[in-house]
Amino acid sequence: MALLKILGTELPIIQAPMAGAQDSKLAIAVSNAGALGSLPCAMLTTDGVHEQMTAVRAQTDKPVNVNAFCHVPPTPDGAREAAWRSALAPYFEEFGLDLDAIPQAPVRAPFSDEVAEVLAAFRPEIVSFHFGLPTPALLARVKAWGARVLSSATTVEEARWLEERGVDAIIAQGLEAGGHRGMFLTDDVTTQIGTFALLPQLVRAVKVPVIAAGGIADASGVAAAMALGAAGVQIGTAYLLCPETMISDAHRAALKSEAARYTALTNLFSGRPARGIVNRVMRELGPMSPVAPAFPLASAALAPLRASAESHGSGDFSPLWCGQMPDGCREVPSAMLTQDLAAGL
Amino acid sequence: MALLKILGTELPIIQAPMAGAQDSKLAIAVSNAGALGSLPCAMLTTDGVHEQMTAVRAQTDKPVNVNAFCHVPPTPDGAREAAWRSALAPYFEEFGLDLDAIPQAPVRAPFSDEVAEVLAAFRPEIVSFHFGLPTPALLARVKAWGARVLSSATTVEEARWLEERGVDAIIAQGLEAGGHRGMFLTDDVTTQIGTFALLPQLVRAVKVPVIAAGGIADASGVAAAMALGAAGVQIGTAYLLCPETMISDAHRAALKSEAARYTALTNLFSGRPARGIVNRVMRELGPMSPVAPAFPLASAALAPLRASAESHGSGDFSPLWCGQMPDGCREVPSAMLTQDLAAGL
After folding, report:
1. pTM exceeding 0.80
2. Contact B4, B209 (CB under 8 A)
3. Is the CB of A224 less than 8 angstroms away from the CB of B196?
4. Nearest residue to A182 (alpha-carbon basis) of A158, A149, A148, A198
5. How far A169 CA sits from the closest chain B CA (Å)?
6. Tens digit of each residue's pLDDT (9 = 90 or more) over B35-61
7. Residues of chain B with CATH 3.20.20.70
8. Measured between alpha carbons, how far is B284 from B267 in angstroms, rounded to an integer?
9. In CATH, what number does A1-71+108-240+327-345 get?
């Protein structure tokens, strides 16, 4: 099977990289279970990447996937930032926080020469990208150490674009998926479609293997994705309650509650549309706000509100990333979850 | 197989009822092809129902499905109607139309004693409902002539509600589906999820057979739905280009164009969220407008704009219903399409 050759794994199952929700611990456990564990780097410093990859190499000899974002950092827009702060001002007042003392939050950084330099020493077998691909030079550098490259497509056009640029396999990210939409040739959310509709279109459109993502959370979902022509699956939300993640108590509680049945695409937490459980700030500002600064700048001003709310156990201002199939979340070791998912192959 | 017993058909495939887009012609052709043809009654007068059912009984001896809406007609709200007309006023001016001369348009009517009276004479084998179920008395009347009853669920709660009230099978309407969302226990669109996520949840939640709908448009989609636990499938959009439908030239052209890749839920055309191809009025007023009158009243004031635009071949003000899988639309006889879909069983 072509995809297994590319991934070098026993199972055509990828644990979706979930920046902020997991580190090497989950990746290691999943890779050791025969699937492909993923280490998200978008919110790590280069030192962090080094530390996490050191842990990976120490604790598994199986292939691992390193994931990076490759957005173009926006030019800060003073007027938009001001409008955003003004929208958030009532909350700062309510929480007794100072709007003029917003700290520099760590922002999601795109893949860079510096990160590639760190990674080159570890030669991760797989590198997956979100929001397109890095520059041709950076992509060539990744391939030069022997890595196979994956990226997400949300439309037929994106899949063709990625194939033309030499990716080894494409992740079809259906609209059910939690977290950030990988869309990069469009910012029009009306182009974003469900896994049932997207997957077979991509399978027809490209020759490289297509990996299904979005709404797949148990063995029957895996079986259905394979029936639709997927070469493999990428699964995120289902892993969120595993003991190897590091989500907040508020996120964990929300995932286990009825609230998880209500998700929406929102740009409030980062500036790009991402699927999360509807919470107070999404309800009150509208999940998609025209004043939220461009990705990834929206997160900075929200950070103090988030920290304050979370310190009281509240997820009212947190990104509660979640796909449309939270029923698949189980508080079991990720190795067990992986084996259960594999029953659908 | 339980569903085939219920439907009385050779194939567990239902042609989705599409009010305004088809009449008995499509239903007859599909039923004769071994699947279940559907006659939508929501926009028919009782005379129309009689005429169409007479045609059905004359042209096929196979089972047929009659579909009706069962919303509660709203109390007209003068302020909201005024706000709606005010939102539409610039278009009336542009088209040289008189906002004060809006004719009484035929509105979608809920299932009633009068319709039941007409249908009783024909004893349709299957009656499917959208937006819940009619009153217990009306439901009993339908069952009294031996009809099997189907209805759509968009959440686990709706599926359980329908099962408790005695439906014979439940249609799981995934978010990919074109046309009206069948949601009836909630008006919160954040509860609406993709077929991949919805279908297995409903299969687990109820004992009656579950029929998959939304994003299924070819044999591989049928196979995937069955793999997810569906007892059968309901397919709408794929039939829209068949010669037996009666869609407008503008709708046909849109379905065949790149525009069909851009769909959204919109309440502009009726007052309830329904999926259609993004067109001018959806772009300019926003696909979901808080000023659109309650279902089904929103359609009246739009009707003159729609008629005027369509007379020039434009779908700018028309409901261009379409699911997220327009690739499945083919200009072939519906019997041929049905046989091709059946290859996925």
Report:
1. yes
2. no
3. yes
4. A158
5. 21
6. 999 999 999 999 999 999 999 999 999
7. 1-71+108-240+327-345
8. 13
9. 3.20.20.70
